[in-house]
Amino acid sequence: MPSLQTKLIKCLIFILFFILSSPLSGQEIKKGNEFDKLVRQLIHDGFKKEKMDALFSRESVFFDPDGVSLFFVHSESSLDYNQFTSKKSIKNALKYITEHKITLEQAQKIYGVDKTIITAILLVETRLGTYLGKRIVMNTLATMAALTDKRLRERIWNAIPDKKKPKKATFIKKAEQRSQWGYEELKALIKYSEQEKISPEKIRGSYAGAMGISQFMPSNALKLAKDGNNDGKINLFSHADAIFSVANYLKHHGWKPGIARQKQHKVLFRYNHSNYYVDTLLKISDKLKG
């Protein structure tokens, strides 16, 4: 029979092995200098040095290859859009229209956008606010913005599962294009956060950096989001603000009462550049009216 000392040694070895083999959580990732160049660029573009240094030094702000790698394997056509036109989904959407009747009708009156279209967007985007995404938006956008650095770009490439890797040239081209896009969205996020007096690293959203019930990118939140409940704040995690913001977005891009189906399709395509997506929104709207 093993002695007590032998048992203790085996127990300690097991605990040590468990600690060393366990994957690090996002909060435990060792911070590096991946964002140094990015911070310098932000300061050059007018953001205050003290604020940027403090923001990027926080433990919750880190380079996120695992999250951003999803951006390069996502395929819109692979999504099951039929789930949103099921009886259960339509029932939930009708219940949502009843619960938010006053706000939806106010938005419809002010912006001229049918409440069934607004509801359809919120249903597909976040299942009416029940699925908002768990990624830290700032980390997603900062990581994307940092991809002008070939070394950091390679880390994203290595994070993509081998079976899902696109062609390397396709990946590099998309990363280069999206780096500038990520930088502009990051700047918008910081400005939006300052405007609304919230900490940017506390905002969570999708793998692509979209946030709130309406899944607005920060640039759209900054320019087109609206205060739907008149509390003096624009909070896209509030149903009233999300509803008014969607309505304002569609009006801004050309939605008018009574516009033709083809024109509706064109406007909705601006929200998400996918014909599958737009066709689903129109089907949902039709079912809600029916």
Provide structural commentary.
- This protein has a two-stranded antiparallel ribbon.
- The protein starts with a helix and ends with a helix.
- With 290 residues, the chain is mainly α.
- 58% of the residues lie in helices and 1% in strands.
- It contains 14 helices and two strands; from the N terminus they run αααααααβαααβαααα.
- Helix 2 runs antiparallel to helix 3, helix 6 runs parallel beside helix 12 and helix 7 crosses helix 14.
- The chain is globular and about 55 Å long.
- About 8% of the residues have low confidence.
Q: Which helices and strands occur, and which strands form pairs?
A:
Blueprint: H1 4-21, H2 36-44, H3 49-56, H4 65-69, H5 87-99, H6 101-111, H7 115-126, E1 135-136, H8 137-145, H9 150-159, H10 168-196, E2 204-205, H11 218-224, H12 239-252, H13 261-269, H14 275-289
Antiparallel strand pairs: 1-2
